């Protein structure tokens, strides 16, 4: 079926369910040319999203690609980060650090309140930093991933607008982490609730430009403007409350239905359209936004504790056996770029290590021969009676993941691998794949604001470290590089360590880069104006308005 026919059928489906889709949402009119460049208060924006996740516990859900969209408009952060990684004031008006990078002082805006009227003061900030660093694991509340928890000593309210935060070792990554999408400021009253009550979004109180109006579990979340909001991030340059009256996040699993609803004027934003459809959507007058985030490229973290990836030769064969140009030209558009390392090129410390994983099928085949894997009559390599086999689990947080994995399957099959694919929805993927120590290859889509935080995912030296490659503490070189990058006191010196770290991880075959990631794709109607995208590529609607 061609794209246009699929789209027409999708529009028909969207019209059929339109009354349900937009019930109570106050949908905007069909797309048309902008009438004015002057922002107009009012209007209701409908944002169609793939999933609304499984829980609203703030620490457990704010880092989700889906729920993070909603949290980013319900809450504030201490610091703002832009697409270049530049930090600027938000709730923290300014900050200081000592020479040893072990103590940081935050100076807060005065007069900020949560939506229940309680002050967002130093005591509230201390409560938030404590739970980001520690969580309450016995109560089912996680600490925030990539927060520099290992050396965290504590936070103290010096006075109502001053907080000091101390670490037992140099922690350059602390300030940037305050801009991470998991580091959302929540009312201490909410933080004190048990996990079961925090899981009710209507009980979660933030200080952001919108508040929760209505939640229909598994279906939609409606936010309404907070009329007294007046402390947006300095970089956005917006004073006073938001222009929009409401934002409705409506769960629609089918991507064609999401985009068809924007085309027909029944919604204003469709999240995660298929990359193959983007050029056609642009041609129909819609706006396509593909912001890149700071963080890791899209790729596979290989599990060194399970066969066949317990062998460095096999890992390196996978690296050199994947044709990334074919992936880019087949699955993606020019908005996607080739990976040059395991970090996005927007990360200031990223360096080009393309040669360590460049496509070279002859080299890949020679590596497998060297490791003793021989092709049988069916084309699959075997060794000691075992097939060269593993399973890939397409990541449901990425719209094109299954298409990419299918291509990787074909490419590695040509080398003699037997690759199986198992596909799950978001909740099932979370249950069966994320955190499963037996999964041979995890497709990573992790953002970060500061390179110093990456040590927390590479080994298991510190409690709570994620140990992506399942090396534990067995790799002394990786231990050393991880420690040096986490405890550096000089940013230039740390950049040199980051270069060493990237090269070493790739040369050991621990990570298989695919492409630079555009995880968050937004298809917008022409009447949507003024949307901001931060360094984590989330849409922020404080300054957004609709031409009506």
What best-fitting shape do the alpha-carbon axes yield? globular
Strand order of the largest sheet: 8-9-10-1-11-21-12
Beta-strand content estimate? 15-25%
Number of helices: 18
Q: Can you walk through the features of this model?
A:
There is one protein chain. By secondary structure, the chain is α+β, with helices and mostly antiparallel strands. The protein is globular.
Keywords:
single chain, 548 residues, alpha+beta, seven-stranded mixed β-sheet, four-stranded antiparallel β-sheet, 18 helices, disordered N terminus
Short description:
The chain is α+β, with helices and mostly antiparallel strands.
Which helices and strands, and how do they pair?
Layout: H1 3-16, H2 18-21, E1 44-49, H3 58-61, H4 67-74, E2 79-81, E3 87-89, E4 92-97, E5 103-108, H5 122-134, E6 152-159, E7 162-167, H6 174-177, H7 188-191, H8 195-198, E8 210-216, E9 220-225, E10 246-251, H9 255-263, E11 269-271, H10 278-283, E12 287-289, E13 298-302, H11 312-321, H12 324-331, H13 361-370, E14 374-375, E15 381-383, E16 386-387, E17 389-392, H14 401-415, E18 418-421, H15 426-432, E19 441-444, H16 455-458, H17 476-487, H18 491-507, E20 511-515, E21 522-524, E22 528-529, E23 532-533, E24 539-540, E25 545-546
Parallel strand pairs: 1-10, 1-11, 17-18
Antiparallel strand pairs: 2-3, 4-5, 5-7, 6-7, 8-9, 9-10, 11-21, 12-21, 13-19, 13-20, 14-15, 15-16, 22-25, 23-24
Helix pairs in contact: 1-9, 11-13, 17-18
């Amino acid at each position: 079926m061609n794209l246009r026919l699929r789209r027409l059928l999708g529009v028909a489906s969207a019209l059929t369910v339109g009354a349900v889709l937009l019930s109570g949402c106050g949908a905007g009119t069909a797309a048309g040319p902008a009438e004015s460049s002057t922002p107009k208060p009012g209007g209701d924006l409908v944002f169609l999203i793939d999933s609304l996740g499984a829980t609203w516990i703030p620490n457990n859900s704010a880092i989700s690609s889906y729920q993070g969209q909603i949290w980013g408009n319900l809450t504030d952060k201490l610091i703002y980060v832009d697409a270049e990684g530049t930090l600027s004031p938000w709730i923290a008006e300014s900050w200081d650090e000592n020479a040893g990078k072990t103590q940081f002082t935050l100076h807060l805006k005065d007069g900020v309140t949560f939506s229940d009227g309680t002050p967002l003061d130093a005591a509230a900030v201390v409560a938030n930093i404590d739970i980001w660093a520690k969580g309450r694991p016995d109560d089912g509340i996680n600490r925030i991933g990539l927060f520099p928890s290992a050396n965290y000593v504590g936070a103290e309210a010096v006075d109502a607008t001053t907080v000091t935060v101390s670490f037992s070792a140099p922690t350059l990554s602390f300030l940037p982490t305050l801009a991470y999408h998991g580091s959302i400021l929540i009312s201490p009253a909410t933080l004190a609730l048990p996990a079961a009550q925090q899981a009710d979004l209507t009980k979660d109180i933030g200080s952001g430009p919108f508040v929760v109006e209505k939640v229909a579990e598994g279906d939609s979340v409606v936010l309404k403007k907070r009329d007294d909001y007046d402390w947006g991030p300095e970089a956005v340059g917006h004073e006073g409350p938001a222009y929009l009256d409401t934002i409705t996040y409506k769960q629609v699993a089918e991507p064609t239905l999401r985009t068809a609803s924007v085309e027909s004027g029944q919604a204003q934003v469709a999240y995660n359209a298929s990359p193959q459809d983007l050029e056609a959507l642009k041609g129909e007058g819609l706006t396509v936004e593909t912001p890149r985030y700071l963080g890791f490229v899209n790729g596979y973290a290989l599990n060194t504790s399970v066969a066949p990836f317990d062998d460095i030769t096999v890992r390196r064969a996978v690296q050199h056996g994947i044709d990334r140009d074919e992936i880019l030209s087949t699955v993606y558009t020019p908005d996607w770029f080739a990976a040059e390392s395991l970090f996005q090129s927007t990360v200031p410390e990223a360096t080009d290590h393309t040669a360590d994983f460049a496509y070279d099928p002859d080299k890949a085949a020679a590596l497998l021969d060297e490791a003793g894997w021989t092709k049988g009559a069916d084309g699959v390599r075997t060794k000691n009676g075992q097939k060269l086999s593993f399973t890939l689990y397409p990541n449901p947080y990425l719209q094109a993941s299954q298409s990419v994995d299918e291509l990787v399957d074909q490419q590695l099959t040509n080398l003699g691998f037997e690759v199986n694919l198992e596909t799950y929805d978001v909740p099932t993927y979370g249950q069966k794949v994320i955190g499963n120590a037996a999964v041979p290859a995890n497709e990573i889509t992790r953002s970060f604001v500061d390179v110093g935080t990456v040590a927390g995912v590479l080994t298991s030296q510190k409690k709570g470290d994620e140990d992506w490659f399942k090396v534990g503490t067995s790799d002394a070189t990786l231990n050393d590089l991880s420690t040096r990058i986490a405890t550096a006191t000089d940013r230039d010196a740390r950049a040199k360590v980051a270069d060493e770290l990237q090269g070493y991880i790739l040369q050991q075959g621990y990570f298989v880069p695919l492409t630079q990631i555009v995880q968050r794709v937004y298809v917008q109607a022409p009447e949507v104006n003024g949307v901001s995208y931060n360094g984590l590529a989330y849409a922020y609607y404080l300054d957004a308005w609709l031409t009506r």
